[in-house]
Design brief:
It is globular, with a radius of gyration of 24 Å. Helix content is about 40%, strand content about 20%. It folds into 2 domains: about 280 residues, Aldehyde Dehydrogenase, Chain A, domain 1 (3-Layer(aba) Sandwich), CATH 3.40.605; about 180 residues, 3-Layer(aba) Sandwich (Aldehyde Dehydrogenase, Chain A, domain 2), CATH 3.40.309. About 50% of the residues are buried. With about 500 residues, the chain is of the alpha/beta class. It has 16 helices and 23 strands. α3 packs antiparallel against α5 and α10 crosses α11. It has a 7-stranded mixed beta sheet, with helices on both faces. A 6-stranded mixed beta sheet has the order 10-9-8-11-12-22, with helices on both faces. A two-stranded antiparallel ribbon has the order 1-2.
C-alpha cells in the first residue's frame, strides 16, 4: 500500500496527502515504481512526489472499474442510493473544503480565496446537484398502437475514462464524476501531471463516503503514457476529456479503436463585444473578469475584445486603468492577491513568447511590457493588453491561455458578429449592450456554446457547458450531462397475436 505523507502548506494547513494510485479503493504504488513531482508555482519549491501510472497500471484500474460495474454491490444500488452516496461525498468535501482549497492553491497557483469560494464551493454544489438527479434518470413510454407497448430505458454506458486539466483540478473532477456516478457508471479518472494532488485527496473522501471498491479509480501520469493508454483502451466504453484541441483530436482518433463514446471540451478564443450603448463601467469590469480570472487560464476566457468605434479609445484607456488597479499580483496565499503565478514554467514561457510575437507582428502594446526577470522565482506573468490588432495576427487566431487580451474596433452589428465568428473555436462569448433586442439577436448569431449578456464567466452547475466547431463535442453540467453518461435502450412489447 502506498504511503500517505503529512504536509504543511504555506498557509499552515496540515493534512495527510495520499501519494499512490487509487485502485479498488486502495492507494497503491505504480507497477514499476514510477513517480512524478509537483511544485509550488509561487517559488518553484517541491511539494511532493506521487505515483505515476503506465499502461500496466491503467489495465489494473480499468479491470477494477469493470469488476465494480458488473458487481452486485454496485448494480443493486438504486438511483436513490447513488444519490445518497453523492450527497455524502458533498458533505465530506464541505467538511474538508479548506484542505481541498489549500491543495489546489498550492499545486496550481490560483488564489486560495478563489479556490475556496469558487472552485471548492462548486465541487460541493455539483455533487449535491447530481445526487438529486440520480433517482430521476427516467425513460418514457411511446404510444404506437393498441397491439404494442414501447418504452425506453436510460442505462449507464459502463466504464468511463475521464481526463481532467490543471486549471481547475478539483472542480473539473466533480464536473466529470458527478453525472457519471449518478447514472451508474464506474470511472477511471486521470488528473493533469501539473496538478496531481487534490484528486488523490478527493479519492480518500470517495472511499470515506462509502462508494464500493472499484467504482472510482484515480490515476496520475503523463498524458503521453497514462492518458494515451486510457484513450485507446479496449475495455473503456467512454472517454471524457477537457484540455487542448490538439490533444482532443488525438484522443478522438485513439477512441475510434473501439468506437468509444466521447465528450470533448477543448480550446477557446472567446470574443467579448462592447456596443456603444453599453454600460461602459460594467463592460470594463466584466472584461477584466473575463480574461484575468484564474490568471487567464480558463478555456472560455474572453480573450478577444471588440469595441464599437465611437467608444473604442475610451474603453481601452478605462480597461487599462481598471486592470492596473484591480490586478494584484503575488502569492496565492496572500488574502489581498487576486492574481497568482501561472501553473508552470512552460506556461509562463508560452505566454511571454506570444507577447514578443504580438509586438513583432505590429500590435500596439497597452500594458504588460514590464514582466518579471527570467531568473526571478515563480511563474508570474503580469496582465498583457494589446490594441489595434487584426484578424491575421497570431495572438488573435491562437489560444494563449494566460492573462493576455487583444482589442480591436468594429463598425456596426454585422461587423461585430463577423469578427466574433472569425475563429476555429466556438466555446463562449459575451455581449454588452443595453438594447435587449440587439442582445438576443447577437447572442443567437454568435457561433458558440454559451453566450453571456452583460457579464462574463459567471457560469452555473445547472447550465450546460460546451462548444461549437473545434471547441469540442457534447455538453457537461446540468441535465444535459446525463445524456453523455447514459445509453438508450428501446423495448418493444407485443400485446397482440403473432401473425
Amino acid at each position: 500500500m502506498a504511503q500517505s505523507i503529512q504536509l504543511t502548506a504555506p498557509n499552515q494547513t496540515t493534512y495527510l496527502q495520499p501519494t499512490g494510485l487509487f485502485i479498488n479503493n486502495e492507494f497503491v504504488p505504480s507497477v514499476y515504481g514510477d513517480t512524478l513531482s509537483t511544485v509550488n508555482p509561487f517559488d518553484e519549491s517541491l511539494i511532493a512526489s506521487v505515483s505515476s501510472a503506465g499502461p500496466e497500471d491503467i489495465d489494473l484500474a480499468v479491470a477494477s472499474a469493470r469488476n465494480a460495474f458488473k458487481s452486485e454491490e454496485w448494480q443493486s444500488l438504486t438511483g436513490y442510493d447513488r444519490g445518497v452516496l453523492l450527497t455524502r461525498l458533498a458533505d465530506l468535501c464541505d467538511r474538508d473544503k479548506h484542505i481541498l482549497a489549500t491543495i489546489d492553491a498550492w499545486d496550481n497557483g490560483k488564489p486560495y480565496e478563489q479556490a475556496l469560494g469558487e472552485d471548492v464551493a462548486e465541487v460541493i454544489s455539483v455533487f449535491r446537484y447530481y445526487g438529486g438527479w440520480a433517482d430521476k434518470i427516467q425513460g418514457r413510454t411511446i404510444p404506437t398502437s393498441d397491439a404494442k407497448l414501447a418504452y425506453t430505458r436510460h442505462e449507464p454506458i459502463g466504464v468511463c475514462g475521464q481526463i481532467i486539466p490543471w486549471n481547475y483540478p478539483s472542480m473539473m473532477a466533480a464536473w466529470k464524476l458527478g453525472p457519471a456516478l449518478a447514472c451508474g457508471n464506474t470511472v477511471v479518472i486521470k488528473a493533469a501531471e501539473q496538478t496531481p494532488l487534490s484528486i488523490l485527496y478527493l479519492a480518500s473522501l470517495i472511499k470515506e463516503a462509502g462508494f464500493p471498491a472499484g467504482v472510482v479509480n484515480v490515476v496520475n501520469g503523463p498524458g503521453t503514457t497514462a492518458g494515451a493508454a486510457m484513450a485507446s483502451h479496449q475495455d473503456i466504453d467512454k472517454i471524457a476529456f477537457t484540455g487542448s484541441t490538439n490533444t482532443g483530436k488525438a484522443i478522438m482518433i485513439a477512441a475510434a479503436s473501439n468506437l468509444k463514446a466521447i465528450t470533448l471540451e477543448t480550446g477557446g478564443k472567446s470574443p467579448l463585444l462592447v456596443f456603444d450603448d453599453a454600460n461602459l463601467d460594467q463592460a470594463v469590469k466584466w472584461s477584466h473578469v473575463g480574461i484575468m480570472t484564474n490568471m487567464g487560464q480558463i478555456c472560455t476566457s474572453t480573450s478577444r475584445i471588440y469595441v464599437q468605434e465611437s467608444i473604442y479609445e475610451t474603453f481601452v484607456e478605462k480597461f487599462k486603468q481598471y486592470t492596473i488597479e484591480n490586478s494584484i499580483v503575488g502569492s496565492q496565499f496572500d488574502p489581498q492577491v487576486n492574481h497568482g503565478p501561472q501553473v508552470s514554467a512552460a506556461q509562463k514561457s508560452r505566454i511571454l513568447g506570444y507577447l514578443e510575437t504580438a509586438k513583432r507582428e505590429g500590435a500596439q502594446l497597452v500594458l504588460g511590457d514590464e514582466q518579471p526577470s527570467p531568473d526571478a522565482k515563480g511563474y508570474f506573468v503580469k496582465p498583457i493588453i494589446f490594441k489595434d490588432t487584426n484578424r491575421d495576427m497570431t495572438v488573435v487566431r491562437e489560444e494563449v491561455f494566460g492573462p493576455f487580451v487583444v482589442i480591436q474596433s468594429f463598425k456596426d452589428q454585422k461587423d461585430a458578429i463577423d469578427k466574433a465568428n472569425d475563429t476555429e473555436y466556438g466555446l463562449g462569448a459575451a455581449v454588452f449592450t443595453e438594447n435587449i433586442t440587439r442582445a438576443h439577436n447577437v447572442a443567437a448569431a454568435i457561433q458558440a456554446g454559451m453566450v453571456w449578456i452583460n457579464s462574463s464567466q459567471d457560469s452555473h452547475f445547472a447550465i450546460p457547458f460546451g462548444g461549437y466547431k473545434q471547441s469540442g463535442i457534447g455538453r457537461e453540467l446540468g441535465e444535459y450531462a446525463l445524456s453523455a453518461y447514459t445509453q438508450v435502450k428501446a423495448v418493444h412489447v407485443n400485446l397482440g397475436t403473432w401473425l
